[in-house]
Design goal:
Belongs to the BZW family. This is W2 domain-containing protein. By secondary structure, this protein is mostly helical. It folds into two domains: 27-218; 268-398, Serine Threonine Protein Phosphatase 5, Tetratricopeptide repeat (Alpha Horseshoe), CATH 1.25.40. The chain is 63% helix and 0% strand. It is built from 20 helices and no strands. The model is unreliable at 405-425 (pLDDT under 50).
């Protein structure tokens, strides 16, 4: 009997290439190489920049980016909380051991800028490092915090990092102990020193931080008055003014939204003047808010010939409210400019401008003096020729109003004439 040999499964073992094996994360050798180089270059930051540029070709910056930045800032790898790891080699040549002055921090900022320009992939890692360092602030000495604040301000001014890193300063523990506010003083001073308050404002707005600066303080001190006093006393009045202005803008938006919703629902408007006082708004600011709310609370007809009639009817309803907030000449001019701007920006209203002005004149919202001042010198450039032409006959009549009292036409009859024509058109 012949025995048939059963087939056997056999496999071939492939030798794994070393480069395919996952390398173990071990920053020890990397740290030793960086520390050794920094010890050799010492305080010569030009030499430091050259060393870092050359080392990127030999060392794995991508893998050990956090280690690299820890060493450049603190002299060695940082443990959670901001303390230096005991079992690691460290250097005395780093940001934290440098002189505490703006010139030195500017030189360090150049080192980081050169490094990141040379190795673009480090950009994100560097931003993450700054966020981490801000969370570790309590673990650093006051002098170390000051140096980091100055460096961060310079980097923000140069656009090397995004203002979104400031999120870390809103950490509850840092805020509660006053660390965030003190750090912010040094940071904003160096930022404004490099650029100006407009640069600060633009960067903060870009990342939605312009209305969050109050969060640098605990909830019980989160007021415009406290913020203003703290930063003004620290020599940052321009930052105080910016924050106050932002709060005012925020209050206006909230008030406008609330008024618009009430009007859309047809609710009776209550305590508008109280809201104005609460938001610390001038009458000129308030009349602009009311006008915008009135005009935004209705769905306008798309046909030019019908929208004027709709506008007259709508504005007639709200003329007592407009009148209540035009007790000053400046308020009347503010309203006229808002009407001009609105009619220019909304093309269907281009022909309605004169009829709106006449209506508000008849309702004692706008005075003869305000209309004449607007016509002769205070108008905007927007649609100037169109609107001045529309107003020409009415303005001529206003100028001759005194004589007209004894003539064939009176103020009231003329206005009624105009109103009748605008309703019929």
């Amino acid at each position: 009997m012949n025995l048939i040999q059963k087939p056997t499964l056999t496999g071939q073992r492939f030798k794994t290439r070393k480069r395919d094996e996952k390398e173990r994360f071990d920053p020890t050798q990397f740290q030793e190489s960086i520390v050794q180089g920094l010890n050799q270059t010492g305080t010569d930051l030009e030499a430091v920049a050259k060393f870092l540029d050359a080392s990127g070709a030999k060392l794995d910056y991508r893998r050990y980016a956090e280690t690299l930045f820890d060493i450049l800032v603190a002299g060695g790898m940082l443990a959670p909380g901001g303390t230096l790891s005991d079992d690691m080699t460290r250097t005395e040549y780093c940001l934290f051991t440098a002189q505490e002055d703006l010139e030195t921090m500017q030189a360090y900022a150049q080192v980081f800028n050169k490094l990141i320009r040379r190795y673009k992939y480090l950009e994100k890692g560097f931003e993450e490092e700054i966020k981490k360092l801000l969370l570790f602030l309590k673990g650093f000495t006051e002098s170390e915090r000051n140096k980091l604040a100055m460096l961060t301000g310079i980097l923000l001014a140069n656009g090397s990092i995004s203002a979104s890193i400031l999120n870390s300063l809103f950490n509850e523990n840092l805020v509660k102990e006053g660390v965030s506010a003190a750090f912010a003083v040094k940071l904003f001073k160096s930022w404004i020193n490099e650029k100006d308050i407009n640069s600060v404002a633009g960067s903060l707005r870009k990342v939605g931080m312009d209305n969050r600066l109050m969060e640098l303080f605990p909830a019980n001190k989160r007021s415009c008055e406290h913020f203003s006093k703290y930063f003004t006393d620290a020599g940052l009045k321009e930052l105080s003014d910016f924050a106050r202005n932002q709060q005012s803008i925020g209050a206006r938006k909230e008030l406008q939204k609330e008024l618009q919703e009430q009007m859309s629902r047809g609710d009776p408007l209550k305590e508008v003047r109280e809201e104005m006082k609460k938001a610390n708004l001038s009458e000129q600011a308030m009349i602009s808010i009311i006008w915008t709310s009135v005009m935004s609370s209705v769905e306008w007809n798309k046909k030019e010939e019908l929208v004027t009639e709709q506008a007259i009817k709508h504005l007639k309803q709200y003329s007592p409210l407009l009148k209540a907030f035009t007790s000053q000449g400046l308020s009347e001019l503010s309203l006229l400019l808002k009407i001009q701007e609105y009619c220019y920006d909304n093309i269907h209203f281009m022909k309605a401008f004169q009829k709106i002005v006449v209506l508000l004149y008849k309702a004692d919202v706008l005075s003869e003096e305000a209309i004449l001042k607007w016509y002769t010198e205070a108008h905007l450039a927007k649609g100037k020729s169109v609107f001045l032409e529309q107003m020409k006959k009415f303005v001529e009549w206003l100028k001759n109003a005194e004589e007209g009292k004894d003539g064939e036409i009176t103020c009231t009859s003329w206005v009624l004439c105009v109103l009748r024509s605008c309703v019929q058109s």
